[in-house]
Amino acid sequence: MDFRKSEEQELLIDNLRELFSNEGLTESYFAECDIKHAYPEKMTKVLLENGYTFLGLPEEYGGTPCDNLTQIMIYEEIARLGAPVYAQFNMYIALKDMIEFGTKEQMRLVMDIAKTGTTPLSLAITEPQAGSDTSAIATTATRKNGKVYINGHKTFITGAGDFPYMLCVTRDLDNPKPHKAMSMWLLRNDAPGITMRKLDKIGTNTIGAYEVYLENVEIDETDLVGAEGNGFMQMVKNFEFERLVQCSYSLGWAEAAFEDAVRYAGQRVQFGQSIGSFQLIQKKISDMALKIENMRNILYKTSWELDNNIPVQISSALTKLCCVGPGYEVLDDALQIFGGIGYTNDLRIQRLWRDSRLQKIAGGTEEIMYHISSRAIIKQHQ
Amino acid sequence: MKIVACYKCVPEEEEIKVKSDRTLDFLKAQWKIGLYDLNAVEAGMKLMEEVGGEVAVMTAADDIVENSKMRKAILSRGPAQMYGIKDDAMKTADSYATAQVLKAGIEKIGGIDLVLCGEGSGDIYAQQVGPVLGALLGWPTVNAVSKITPADRKLLVERSIEDGTEVLEVDLPAVVCVTSDINIPRIPTMKEILGAGKKPSTIWNLADVGAKIVNGSDTISILAPEQTDRLRIIFEGGSEENIEALYSHLRKMRRQ
After folding, report:
1. Minimal Cα distance from B76: which residue of A?
2. Residues of B with CB below 8 A from A57's CB?
3. Cis ω for the linkage preceding B200 (within 30 of 0)
């Protein structure tokens, strides 16, 4: 079994490092974006101009076909450099969803925006009473006088206030089968009837999360994306890859924190010796290395499975469990190794720690990952 | 315009270790394309984009010629194809021998209008191979070139010299060695990297190009500079006295 990266992968990663270094995408830039809660425009522009943004999308849309594993490695590297990598992924998932389910008109609209470097749309799924329980979605689409009216209340919608459009999931409340009753609609985020409130999060500061109120927002039948009632299936189609991408953030940030912490452990002197010579620090270091090794192996393997059309329903859930929790532990241990200065805003460890904490919740909580994987494992053995 | 840019694979200098006898240890050093060679390739690409034609790259070395990652690394910078002349004796070839082999390669390809080289290799930086190659080919040869403008069947080049810039008209075919000021080499795009492996590579041995490796010089040794201990002379505080003392000290050192 050859566990080495391919030459192309090595070259892509080397290039990415050179690109970030040459274009001033460095720690001080990432720190500034975080402190100012500013969208990383420069990073987005550089990645777009160099073909990274449309990686994995079909050539007819200006993309470069690429396997999932290589894409995962690229996200991992961007994270490992300490960058707000999560801001980058929104573009990809927005376009992927539209390519799969949008009409030619909708696709053209979305691509025109994407080409300028702006992420065209946000994904409005979650509601105050419907987080893990998507069957409780209560936003409705009501037909009247040849138009469609959207009413509801969404929350934790990434980029709703920043991206010009919104892919809004509604449910037909009269249908007893909730997962066959959902539909997706393309809305302008400044349509009359839409009001928003930006949430005050503790991390992932470079991209806002919003509460969105929809009151009789008028749209047309042609704004339906995909098939009516098929919204849920459409939604989950790209979930598996999205899970793996989140794992690549956890992995990359863990690698960055690990490097910082190990270097520090070798330098910091207390009681006349480097703290790296104390057993409790040594245990942390080995545990961190072990977790990173496991995270990387399972993530690469599951990405390989996805590339080879092997079902990843169970393995993607297990991968997320292996990565987001342990990944956060690595970040936490790293902060502990730094001691007092780890708790200040002078170092990057605090930013990576805050940002990685979200991965245990967003895109499917750890608890749901346990539910998905074990239910399917038990079914397999019957 | 048919252009060939010459390149050399060199060890990553940060990974070279100095042994206690001052000789160099390359064991942990990764290979990379010589930095200045990338400027030559980029200059070729820019010219081709302006006047049309083709850019190929060429190297003469030992086994590293066939290294797949190095081939992809250079081909992802834009050239249409790669030529490599492979022989073990290239490991100890000097600038003169290297230029002889490259000349044979250029003549074998035939019909070349312009050969581009970096000012020097990324490791030895003797700055000889380009000029010697030009002399052996019998073509107009210029080095220290910081700008190239194509004209009809010739080039207008700017050379950076001590007191200013020299502008020369150079007839083709020619050999031009470029400085690192001439351009900033493009960073390969995703598409280029993923497509590099598919571009053609032609590997020749010495017999194929009709060349021999004959050194014009003898390398006696390559040693790292002697380690000198830090002097640890400290001028503490920004008083006039100290500034004067530092200044005199620096002047004294400079004269030594």
Report:
1. A11
2. none
3. no
Instruction: Say if residue B179's pLDDT is above 90.
Output: yes
Nearest to A246 by CA among A181, A187, A306, A323: A323
Measured CA to CA in angstroms, residue B75 lies from A6, B193, B195 at distances of: 16, 8, 9
Chain B CA closest to residue A48: B189
ipTM: 0.78
Chain B: give the shortest CA distance to residue A118, in Å.
20
Number of separate domains in chain B: 1
Please tell me the predicted confidence (pLDDT) of residue A129: 97
Any domain includes B105: yes
**What pTM value is reported for the model?**
0.88
Q: Do A22 and B194 touch (CB under 8 A)?
A: no
User: Does the beta carbon of B74 lie under 8 angstroms from any beta carbon of chain A?
Assistant: no
A13/chain B closest Cα distance in angstroms: 10
- One-letter amino acid for residue A80 of the chain: R
Q: What is the mean pLDDT of residues A96-114?
A: 91
Note the pLDDT tens digit of each residue in B182-210: 999 988 988 899 899 999 999 999 999 99
The pLDDT of residue A237 is 78
Cα A235 from Cα A238, distance rounded (Å): 7
Show the domain range for B12.
Answer: 2-209
The structure tokens listed for A325 are 């929790």
Q: Looking at the predicted structure, is the pLDDT value of residue B5 above 90?
A: yes
Report how far residue B7's alpha carbon sits from residue B60's, in angstroms, rounded to the nearest whole number. Answer: 8
Residue B187 at interface with chain A, using a CB cutoff of 8 Å:
yes
Q: Find the CB nearest A64 among B69, B190, B197.
A: B190
Q: Considering the domain boundaries, does residue B239 fall inside one?
A: no
- How confident is the model over A350-366, as a mean pLDDT? 96
Confidence band for A69, pLDDT divided at 50, 70 and 90: very high
d(CA A74, CA A252): 10
Our CA-based measurement puts residue A352 at a distance from the nearest CA of chain B, in whole angstroms, of 27
State the Cα angle at A207 between A188 and A200, rounded to 5°: 100
Task: Determine contact: B72 vs chain A, CB below 8 A.
Answer: yes
Question: Can you state the percent helix, strand and coil of chain A, rounding each to 5?
Answer: 55, 15, 30
Predicted confidence (pLDDT) per residue in A133-169, tens digit = 999 999 999 999 999 999 999 999 999 999 999 999 9
Between chains, do B190 and A11 touch, taking CB under 8 Å as contact?
no
CATH of the domain at B194: 3.40.50.620
> Cα separation of B175 and B135, whole Å?
9
Report how far residue B127's alpha carbon sits from residue B143's, in angstroms, rounded to the nearest whole number: 9
Among A83, A72, A74, A87, which Cα is nearest to A23's?
Answer: A83
What confidence category does residue B227 fall into, taking pLDDT thresholds of 50, 70 and 90?
confident
Rounded distance between C-alpha atoms, residue A323 and residue B158, angstroms: 56
B191, A15: Cβ pair inside 8 Å? Answer: no
CB contact under 8 A, A52 and B68: no
Residue B246: inside a domain: no
Question: Would B130 be classed as within a structural domain?
Answer: yes
Peptide bond into B150 cis (omega under 30): no
